[in-house]
Amino acid sequence: MINSITSNIIVRPVAATDNPALKQFVESVPDGGRVAFQPRYKVDDIERASSLLRPGNRGFAAFLEGKPLGIIYAWAHRVIYGNKEYPAVLLNGLSVHPDYRRQGLATRLLREALNWANESFGEGKLLVYGYIQSGNQGSEAACIGVGGQLSGRYLTVSPTRTLPDSNPTSPNLIREATKSELEGIATNLANFYGGYDFLQPQTTATLAEWLTPKEIEGRTVKLASYYIAQNSAGELLAGMGVFNGLVLFDLQIVKTSGLVKLLNCVLKIIPADGFLSPLPVSRVWYRDLIAARALWQSIRKLESSRGRTLTTSFDPNSPLKPLFQSGLAPTSKLQLIIFTKPEGATTTGKFLAGYES
């Protein structure tokens, strides 16, 4: 019966009037990977929430008689690839109702997003890419079906508990950055990630915009903070940004693998109710690993009043591994998939230094 009505499904850009139905949909369809997450929104305007997480994130959804059956987002930004800067689109948030999977709906959503990207920026002039969680075979097959190429390169996604009962000490001065320090932070980020593909270039202006309080449903809220470590001479040694997306939504784990469950019995990172209350960490750099580790431990304490966990996403081949990776911590993996590349663009061979939410 379902197959006979799929031709009546309409795929179109998301409108503001779709918010109530889309909120109900995305909260009922978990990710299909090894670790299944479901968002739990704290705001009604989920499209505004999405754009605050990734400014300009554009949604496309599939509807049958007004009922959403699937969704995908396309985030336009700029990245460095092969030491050159290009327009890029990250395809993200692909989700299809379980009753309508394996019927070509994910493919239709992907094609809609790809067509929009090519029409907006010009075919052959931009980089279109995405990430697929390990174990999500349906999304993997759909992406390959529209020309996506699996890279074989992965991001390690790891939650780390905050430390409400600790008081870490450090020989370095650790505090929030000031506006006058943003230029130096942008320079340090560029130096730290020099030669890496998929770097999202940062400037004083982009950092300032990220840190500026935002309006959501009549409130002005501070979503982002940037912390630095400096020595007694005032030199910047390390920096990390934290995004308080918990103002917008929480993430609940509804399914994990047996190994993750076993590790969690010991480490107790995933709470019994499954709510991670995650605070994503991004825009990380360091000149001194010891100072960076002290900064990381201090942030775990400083952010404990806002979230249960800090989440990091990093390439295990990058210099972020010795800072964040713990041998026993439960992790998930996201594989990079590339849909289109600019004509003539060639990789440096160094991928995914860090992933920014």
Strand order, biggest sheet?
1-3-4-5-6-16-7-15-14-12-11-8
* Straight-line distance between termini: 40 Å
For the record, the CATH class of the largest domain is Alpha Beta
CATH superfamily of the largest domain: Gcn5-related N-acetyltransferase (GNAT)
Helix- and strand-based class? alpha+beta
Query: Any idea what the radius of gyration is?
Result: 20 Å
Counting structural domains, the number is 2
Count of helical segments?
Answer: 9
Largest sheet: 12 strands, mixed
Spans of at least 5 consecutive residues whose pLDDT stays below 50 are none
CATH fold type of the largest domain: Aminopeptidase
**Gross geometry:** globular
Average of per-residue pLDDT values:
89
Please report which band the strand proportion falls in: under 5%, 5-15%, 15-25%, 25-35%, 35-45% or over 45%: 25-35%
Total number of strands: 16
Using the 3D structure, state the CATH architecture of the largest domain: 3-Layer(aba) Sandwich
Q: Could you estimate the helical fraction of the residues in percent?
A: 10-25%
Order of helices and strands: EHEHEEEHEHEEHHEEEEEHEHEHE
Throw out a few tags for this protein.
357 residues; alpha+beta; Aminopeptidase; 2 domains; twelve-stranded mixed beta sheet; two-stranded antiparallel ribbon; 9 helices; globular
Topology:
Layout: E1 10-13, H1 19-26, E2 36-41, H2 46-53, E3 58-64, E4 67-81, E5 84-96, H3 105-121, E6 127-133, H4 137-145, E7 149-161, E8 173-176, H5 182-192, H6 204-211, E9 214-216, E10 219-221, E11 224-230, E12 236-243, E13 249-255, H7 258-267, E14 278-286, H8 289-302, E15 309-314, H9 321-324, E16 332-340
Parallel strand pairs: 5-6, 14-15
Antiparallel strand pairs: 1-3, 2-13, 3-4, 4-5, 6-16, 7-15, 7-16, 8-11, 9-10, 11-12, 12-14
